[in-house]
Amino acid sequence: MNDYFYLGVVTKTFGYKGQVVIYLDTDEPEKYKTLDAVFIKEEDEMLPYMIEDFIYKGANQAILKFADVNGDEAKNLVRAELYLPLSFLPPLTGNKFYFHEVIGFDVIDKEKGNIGKCVDFMEVSRQPIMQVNYNGTEILIPAVDEIFETVDRDNKTITISAPDGLIDIYL
Questions:
Q1: What φ, ψ does residue 77 adopt, rounded to 5°?
Q2: Cα distance between residue 120 and residue 43, in whole Å
């Protein structure tokens, strides 16, 4: 799973020929219109599903027809999560980053200094939250552009400007 990123989910079937509607969890869903395949986790394996047809509908939704998936077989894919290899992600520069890319980075607050290491991200009410470990204490930082000042990939640090009092809640 560490070699893949979450792309979206099958939300429902469409028609009777084995098509499905997918939700693409990305800021630029139109970039994925030319995909040949996606991966679906089944048990402990990532299995490729070849795409026969991809129709982007807007609002992060598309209609897909998978090769060798017909009629009722598509019902079994509802709620299946779609993944792609990390190599499909374009490299980011500057202060933009992928969550998986900064795990292990030191988090430096402009006021408090080093507040620990980024250990993960979680989604709370569609809001990503960075989880920072400070000597066994978890600090939660909203993962929004306004808070992130700089990302230094060479030194593996992220400089933030946390809202007043946020870090004090945890320490």
A1: -95, -10
A2: 24
Range 122-143 burial, b when 16+ CB lie within 10 A, else e: eeeeeeebbbbebeeeebebeb
pTM of the model: 0.69
pLDDT, tens only, 112-136: 999 999 999 998 877 899 999 999 9
If you average pLDDT over every residue of the chain, what do you get?
92
Residue 29, CA atoms < 13 Å, CB-side half-sphere:
18
Sheet of 106-109, strand order: 137-142, 127-134, 113-124, 106-109, 157-160, 148-152
Can you read off the two tokens belonging to residue 48? Answer: 């490729």
Task: Write down the residue that tokens 């890319």 correspond to.
Answer: 101
47 exposed, middle or buried (CB, 10 Å; 0-12, 13-18, 19+)?
A: exposed
